[in-house]
Amino acid sequence: MILNVEADALIHDHSGFFETQRNDILSQLKSKINAKNIKSNFSILYANLSMIRIDKSINDNKKYELLKDLLETIKIQTNKNEDLTKNPISGFIDDSVIDYMILESEVLEEIIHLAYILNDNSLIFSYIEECKIIKSNNNINDQEGLSVIHLNEGNSYLKQKKYIKSLECFNQSLSISKRIGNEKIEVSSNIGLSKIHFGKNEYNLSLNFLIESLKLNILNDFDLLYNVYNGILKIAVKTKNIDLYNEYEKDITNIFESDLNKGYLYDELLSNFNKCKEFNKDDN
User: Which of these ranges, 174-188, 191-205, 262-276, has the smallest mean pLDDT?
Assistant: First the structure.
């Protein structure tokens, strides 16, 4: 079970701190899954979810098929009330029936997130209500997970430029994240709201959500920092706001120097940064 917790930490860490442990955790998970002495089906199923989540060698379409099969396997388990699920350091509660529901909702959440990456809105909406029902169950009450689901739903509507529905979802996610004190989800919700206003040419409102995000604790989360500063630079480019670029130039340069992994958003931020430098030169 500890390996599953380590895998979960790796998935949710955007600082790069746990990345060096990925291969080691994956190797140990595979070893445990193939071991003959594991008496708990739950532990094996949980380990399979962790393995699918962190194995970068699995392409997204294959990952979806594996998650779908895992979901079906969890649903048809016949000994849920007898299985061993005790694990005091995880999000499970040592009630096997409820713990299976939690595990099912985690798989659903992963499928929904993957469907967003695959840009498959129909797939997202085919699973999202089921996931909400489980996470809202009084015995589970996974407010953090529910906030993430609203976030994914909002992003899906945003891709379709359905701004009213998207706004409702992001506001729900924002409300929950503030209530539970999860600043990273709060920032992600702010980014979504900022994108809505940017899409409607409401640049001041868009900028406000991004500035609010910088007041929160995201210094070690490069994904969020890239998204926030990308949003700010897009507004600067769109409005030819040299002062806005100058205000954040040093902070963005520090990100370029600090991020050793140069994540997938690095190129976009660098491109927007260079666009701002160009019109700054022209103005001078």
Answer: 262-276
